[in-house]
Amino acid sequence: MVISKETRAIIIALHNNGLTGKSIAARKIAPQSTIYRIKNFKERGSIVAKKAPGRPRKTSKRQDHLLKVFQLRDRATSSAELAQEWQQAGVSASARTVRRRLLEQGLVSRRAAKKPLLSRKNIRDRLIFCKMYREWTAEDWGKVIFSDESPFRLFGTKQLVRRRRGEHYHQSCLMPTVKHPETIHVWGCFSVKGVGFLTVLPKNTAMNKESDKMQALIVQEWTAISQDLVQKLIESMPGRTAEVLKKKGQHCKY
């Protein structure tokens, strides 16, 4: 707890008059733990608090803000590259210091979120669609049947494993990949009444026992989707169109 010089002087004067820490704390001048820690007068004859030990901060708030501007200009810039850019601005600091300063300002290094690439045409079409249906309510969207086609690959799915140091390439910790993975294409639809039939399309490249298992799992997961979940998705449509318009057709949280 930080207290003023005047309060420290009063506490020291009461100490010198023979009062105990408990007696001084009863006067509610400061917390009892703070009163017991005030030893500046006895040790140094001064009521000024000691300077905190340790190395002084290397950068100013203005310099830290400049670093933040550099990072926000290009989110993919590495800490080493930022250190060089910062140095050109007159601040000599390591990549480690860069990471600490960015962390203090709430900028944490994370893997970039994956979203489909949006061309200018995609952005324009998204805006046209959302402007056309911006006034639609959840009740209006409840009259629509939503449908789409999706591919499922037998290889290349993500998997988390627990491994010890040095086991990066251990056989039990690997996820095998192939250059041209076998793919299962399906088409499905849903409405406010729930999911419809899932159709496995004939253009599939996967033709073996593993693909049969995968098809069965896909159908199983599809039929397990509850009507409540579908209802929530449809009710979110007004919010989705508003968000796309707010982002001017660019990526959003949906």
UniProtKB/TrEMBL annotation:
One of its GO terms (molecular function) is DNA binding. It comes from the Eukaryota. Coiled coil: none annotated. SUPFAM superfamilies: Homeodomain-like (SSF46689). InterPro entries: Homeodomain-like_sf, RNaseH_sf, Transposase_5, Transposase_Tc1-like. Residues 73-134 form the Transposase Tc1-like domain. It comes from Poecilia formosa. GO terms for biological process: DNA integration; DNA transposition. This is Transposase Tc1-like domain-containing protein. It holds the Pfam family HTH_Tnp_Tc3_2.
